[in-house]
Amino acid sequence: MAASIVVTGAATLAACSGGSGGAGGSGGSGDGSITLWTHNGGNDAELAIDEQIVADFNASQDEYTVELQSFPQASYNDAVVAAASAKKLPCIVDIDAPNVPNWAWAGYLAPLDLPEGTFDGQLESTVGTVDGQVYTYGHYDVALAMYSKRSVLESVGARIPTMDEPWTEQELDDVLADLKATGQFPYPLDLGTGGTGEWLPYAYSPFLQSFGGDLVDRETYTSAEGVLNGPEAVAWGEWMQHLVDDGYMSARSGSDATADFVNGQSAILYSGSWANPTVTEAFGDDAVVLPPPDLGEGPKIGGGSWQWGMTSGCSDPAAAQAYLEFALQSDYVVELADTLGVIPATDEAAAAMPDYAEGGKAAVFRDMAKDFALVRPVTPAYPFISSTFQKAVSDILSGGDVQQILDQAAADIDNDIRQNDDYAF
């Protein structure tokens, strides 16, 4: 599931396209037959469920027919951008949640007009709302968390943090110091610093936000000045450097942080709910899931995964809307969550799954997604913000001057926003 948070260069192309109305296309023949595109080519388990939903919809009525076309994830965004340029988009597309505002601004997507109450009981992070209108929805989400072994934490007298009482910054620091002093681990903490791309803002902007900073001013979305380079943001960057300088984590961890944790290379792993099956299988009842620390403004995690939307040039919006309403049935949400090991988007689906129902062994992940998740900035500028933040994180972990790095990042983002004064819907 970590792969679902990769942003390709195509998203940046969309950010540079400017204006609306460029999507065009038809996505259908006008006779009730429409096309659906998905990024799940090569992801056999999820693609099989997509295919089943399409087959079930086609068999459920005789007015509309949906045809599915799949693409490998690595080439999917490129295909969408190329189709938009040629005015040949399909009627239905899936889209990584942080790209929804950009695609809506670029004119690729149309707001959904589904029945009132459709999204009642749905995780907020799984509904793509832009400028007060719903453009997309998802069947699932994932949640960031920390993992450890109860026996390891108890061996150094560490308190096991809870949702209601997460570790503070000082508590986490004390635990890391005690774990390092044991000499058992090359690094007591693994934050996945070997990751690249969208992992960096997805994983580390929540820590920035917990300090009280952010990627951009969410009141106006017109500037990063003061929020990405203010005192709180600088404190975040210095904290990240402190973790490296004091030997608590590597500036560039291994390529598989979960495997390194299971193999005893670290005592605390920062990863997503997708790591839970591996960790649980390795350590059984000794495995413990920890909430992210409260660094001053409460625990935060990233929110938003792949979602479904309708394109603005769809020749048969009624067919697309009918399919999208049909596809949100609880049975499909349950099947996707169960098969993929992800968090069900709806309360109804969660209640039907023992692991995610109240008291279930995976319910903590849905609780964190509900209570701690913050979607990435809802602005067409996000692809540029993301790439700028990625560079800033790399420079900070390499030991650069935090204030200078963040000043430059904020200035670059503000300059991009000024140059694209049509970042509006």
UniProtKB/TrEMBL annotation:
One Gene Ontology term of the molecular function aspect: maltose binding
One Pfam family cited in the UniProt record for this chain: SBP_bac_8
Record organism: Cellulomonas cellasea DSM 20118
Xref: Gene3D superfamilies: Periplasmic binding protein-like II
GO CC list: ATP-binding cassette (ABC) transporter complex, substrate-binding subunit-containing
Name of the protein this chain belongs to: Transporter
GO biological process: maltodextrin transmembrane transport; maltose transport
Keyword set, alphabetical order: Signal, Transport
InterPro entries: SBP
Stated family: Belongs to the bacterial solute-binding protein 1 family.
